[in-house]
Design a protein that fits this description.
Layout (H helix, E strand, L loop, with lengths): L6 H34 L5 H27 L6 H27 L3 H10 L1 H56 L1 H19 L1 H21 L5 E2 H19 L3 E6 L8 E2 L5 H12 L6 E10 L2 E8 L16 H14 L4 E6 L5 E8 L3
Parallel strand pairs: 2-4
Antiparallel strand pairs: 1-3, 4-5, 5-7, 6-7
Helix pairs in contact: 1-2, 1-5, 2-3, 2-5, 3-5, 4-5, 5-10, 6-7, 7-8, 9-10
Keywords: Kinase, Membrane, Transferase, Transmembrane, Transmembrane helix
InterPro entries: Bact_2-comp_sensor_kinase, HATPase_C_sf, HATPase_dom, His_kinase_dom, Sig_transdc_His_kin_internal
Protein name: Sensor histidine kinase
């Protein structure tokens, strides 16, 4: 069976995995030596059993793990070729490991043969433990790596699905704004056509300008504060045509915050709510101010009006409740508990709507 990975990738897998495998096998070799010394009681001291265990186990690892990593990388090896490698590698590792250990210990190899003859059960147990461990470890580790890779793929797929679902939700919430705003504007435009055609023409021109400005950003996931404030300038220009001298406004955006990314169409529901429920029903002149500032790593966006205030009656016109609910739902979907939205009284009259957003994702 041929490998599906190019050779350089297998070499990287070898250098990445082999040190970890050596550390694991060394721990297991120590446990085998302790088992042989104190449970099986081979008659040899711990140092001797440890030398044999380390030499045989380390060689078995090298003879099994290196071919596996070079041939199949970190994937699951095919069963028959892999067990064929084990069947060849284990006896060779046993023979060479005994020779190296006896040389290190300075004892004749015949002594090891005699000791094995005196306690065949212990040595058979030793060999079986080493062989079974190597077979079990490398075969199951390949399966575990495959399962881990499948789990990682499934996790990535789930995350992608969740991201797509959130984006779909945000887009659904976002597009709710435009029908609401267009419904109100077109209703006013319809009335002006019969009563004041020049003013209706001017309002239509302002509406076209606003729609051109908002067409791109209303479909984007992110915009900048500079673009958001430009949209609000166009929107308030449109509202000024409708309300005439009764509406004045000002926008304050520090230059340092102009390029800060924000969700698009986030301010419009607040501005529209201030005009619809606070300034339009009020017979006197009104003012609306939009300000951006940064405090303690948080972006604070404020929409303050001098309208009727929080105690003003709320209209039951369709779409009335969409704006503020839209803001809350979008903030929850985008930032969770890290963002806040509050409505507080303005002095002497009106409402202050305040958004507090993290400046980092």
């Amino acid at each position: 069976m041929t490998s599906s990975l190019p050779a350089p990738l297998h070499m990287r897998a070898l250098f990445r995995r082999l040190p970890t495998d050596l550390a694991i096998v060394t721990v297991f070799n120590v446990l085998i030596a302790v088992t042989l010394t104190y449970l099986v009681r081979t008659g040899s001291p711990l140092s001797v059993n440890l030398a044999y265990s380390l030499c045989i186990g380390t060689l078995a690892l090298l003879f099994c793990d290196v071919p596996r990593l070079l041939l199949w990388g970190e994937g699951k090896p095919p069963r028959l070729p892999f067990f064929l490698i084990l069947a060849i590698a284990n006896p060779i590792a046993w023979y060479l490991g005994v020779g190296i250990a006896t040389h290190i210990l300075g004892i004749p190899r015949e002594n090891f043969t005699l000791a094995r003859a005196r306690n065949p059960t212990g040595f058979l147990t030793f060999f079986a433990l080493v062989s079974l461990f190597i077979c079990w470890y490398f075969w199951n580790r390949g399966k575990l790596q495959l399962l881990a890779a499948e789990a990682a793929t499934e996790k990535a797929r789930t995350a992608a699905i969740e991201k797509q679902a959130m984006q779909a939700q945000l887009q659904m919430l976002q597009v709710q704004i435009e029908p609401h705003m267009l419904f109100n504007t077109l209703a006013n435009l319809r009335g002006l056509i019969a009563l004041d055609p020049p003013r209706a023409q001017h309002m239509l021109d302002q509406l076209i300008q606003y729609l051109r400005a908002t067409l791109t950003s209303s479909r984007a996931e992110k915009t900048t504060l500079d673009q958001e404030f430009a949209l609000m300038e166009a929107y308030l220009g449109l509202m000024s045509v409708r309300m005439g001298a009764r509406l004045s406004h000002d926008l304050q955006l520090p230059d340092a915050l102009r390029d800060l990314p924000v969700p698009p169409m986030l301010l419009q529901p607040l501005v529209e709510n201030a005009i619809k429920h606070g300034l339009e029903p009020k017979m006197d002149d009104g003012h609306i101010g939009i300000r951006a500032e940064q405090q303690d790593g948080m972006l604070i966006l404020t929409v303050a009006d001098t309208g009727l205030g929080l105690d003003a009656p709320v209209s039951d016109t369709p779409g009335t409740h969409v704006g503020l609910a839209n803001v809350r739902e979008r903030l929850q979907a985008l930032y969770g508990e890290r963002a806040t939205f509050t409505l507080t009284p303005n002095a002497p009259t009106g409402v202050i709507a305040r958004l507090t957003l993290p400046t980092r994702p």
